[in-house]
């Protein structure tokens, strides 16, 4: 305590300068202390709410998550974000330390992706430096994680249009990408999901929608024995826990334990099936684009179908045999072999005929 009071006194007397500067170089130049340089970098790394969303997704990916659930809501200037995943998890002893600078699980490796370098141990520190509160709500090794952020949007801004859902297109290389839409939370999460669609899924919605989705996924993937005979919800993976609830009160309690705020009425609506689960973001984007007529099928190969000439000839012979019954009943005859044409994703067979 005496040391803390001394530091506070020095801060007040010097205006904080002495604690921020390691060395004065003259002519107004100084060398900052490591802590001050980190603090300034952290403020720069997270400049919008969407940046925080991206860092949460990257963290879950690096923890080998296959499913990431982002629950988000806003009341006035307060934005709440909860990231829940089925990744490696964080030991209890480290759940506060992971928000310190330079704390990382990537001693031997770092990741350089579309958003820059990841693995410096600065992502969660940067987030915590820019939000009102950031904490690990629940996590354990091999049980996944639930991390919650409470954000003051008057301090950390977000895009003004959070309701627009983007549409997809294919770029020149045939890769799917976002065609239109503001760079809001949905677009940030969708762009991440598109890049990693072969290794993970991202689900985005309100707290009630994500709770409903977690219940549905757990009920499909967890054996009835686990659900019936579990005495300790914290021994079950975070993404399965809501399926343990027997009534609305228990659903509210378990949801709160993983960072999701539900009212009793909402809990009843989830249990009665009135709040539908959400699809993963890539599937939702595909459906939205298809309805608007401006999108593409993400599961369709951008290359046209190609058949070998010998396969076309063999198929034509098969079609000739198949035609014989029809020709006999309707007194028809072929004037040539059936013509097989391949165009795009369609095979067309034409039968040149004449009547007898």
Key terms for this structure?
single chain; 356 residues; alpha+beta; 5-stranded mixed β-sheet; two-stranded antiparallel sheet; 22% strand; elongated
Number of helices: 12
Report the span from N to C terminus.
108 Å
Mean of residue pLDDT values: 81
Helix content: 25-40%
Low-confidence stretches: 9-15, 295-302
Give the quaternary arrangement of the chains: single chain
Let me know the number of strands.
Answer: 15
The fraction of residues assigned to DSSP E strands is 15-25%
Helix/strand class:
alpha+beta
What is the strand arrangement across the widest sheet?
A: 7-8-4-3-11
Q: What Rg do the Cα atoms give?
A: 29 Å
- Shape estimate: elongated
Helix-strand pattern, N to C? HHEEHHEEEEHEEEEHEHHHHHHEEEE
Largest sheet: 5 strands, mixed
What this model shows, in words?
This protein has helices at about 1-15, 15-20, 35-45, 50-60, 125-130, 185-195, 205-220, 225-230, 250-255, 265-270, 280-290, 310-330; strands at about 20-25, 30, 65-75, 80-85, 110-115, 115-120, 135-140, 145-150, 165-170, 175-180, 200-205, 330-335, 340-345, 345-350, 355. With about 350 residues, it is of the alpha+beta class. The strands form 6 sheets. Strands 7-8-4-3-11 form a 5-stranded mixed β-sheet, sandwiched between helices. Strands 1-2 form a two-stranded antiparallel ribbon. Strands 5-6 form a two-stranded antiparallel sheet. The termini are far apart.
């Amino acid at each position: 305590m005496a040391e803390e009071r001394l530091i506070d006194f020095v801060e007040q007397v010097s205006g904080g300068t002495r604690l921020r500067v390691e060395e004065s170089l003259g002519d107004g130049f100084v060398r900052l202390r490591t802590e001050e340089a980190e603090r300034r970098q952290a403020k720069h790394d997270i400049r919008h709410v969407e940046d925080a969303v991206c860092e949460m997704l990257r963290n879950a990916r690096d923890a080998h998550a296959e499913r990431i659930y982002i629950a988000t809501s806003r009341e006035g200037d307060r934005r709440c974000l909860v990231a829940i995943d089925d990744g490696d998890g964080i030991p209890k002893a480290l759940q506060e330390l992971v928000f310190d600078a330079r704390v990382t699980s990537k001693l031997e490796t770092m990741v350089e992706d579309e958003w820059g370098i990841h693995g410096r141990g600065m992502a969660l520190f940067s987030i915590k430096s820019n939000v009102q509160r950031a904490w690990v709500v629940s996590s354990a090794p091999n049980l996944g994680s639930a991390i919650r952020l409470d954000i003051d949007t008057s301090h950390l801004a977000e895009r003004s249009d959070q309701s627009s859902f983007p549409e997809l297109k294919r770029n020149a290389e045939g890769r799917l990408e976002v065609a239109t839409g503001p760079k809001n939370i949905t677009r940030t999460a969708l762009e991440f999901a598109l890049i990693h669609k072969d290794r993970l899924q991202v689900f985005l919605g309100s707290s009630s929608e994500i709770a409903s989705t977690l219940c549905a996924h757990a009920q499909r993937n967890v054996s009835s024995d686990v659900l019936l005979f579990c005495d300790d919800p914290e021994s079950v993976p975070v993404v399965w826990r809501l399926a343990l609830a027997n009534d609305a009160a228990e659903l509210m309690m378990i949801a709160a334990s993983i960072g999701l705020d539900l009212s009793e009425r909402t809990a009843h609506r989830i249990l009665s099936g009135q709040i539908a689960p959400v699809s993963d973001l890539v599937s939702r984007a595909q459906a939205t684009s298809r309805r608007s007529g401006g999108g593409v099928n993400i599961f369709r190969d951008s290359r046209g179908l190609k058949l070998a000439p010998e396969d076309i000839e063999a198929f034509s012979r098969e079609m000739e045999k198949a035609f014989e019954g029809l020709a006999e009943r309707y007194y028809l005859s072929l004037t040539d072999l059936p013509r097989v044409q391949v165009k795009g994703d369609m095979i067309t067979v034409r039968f040149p005929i004449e009547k007898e």
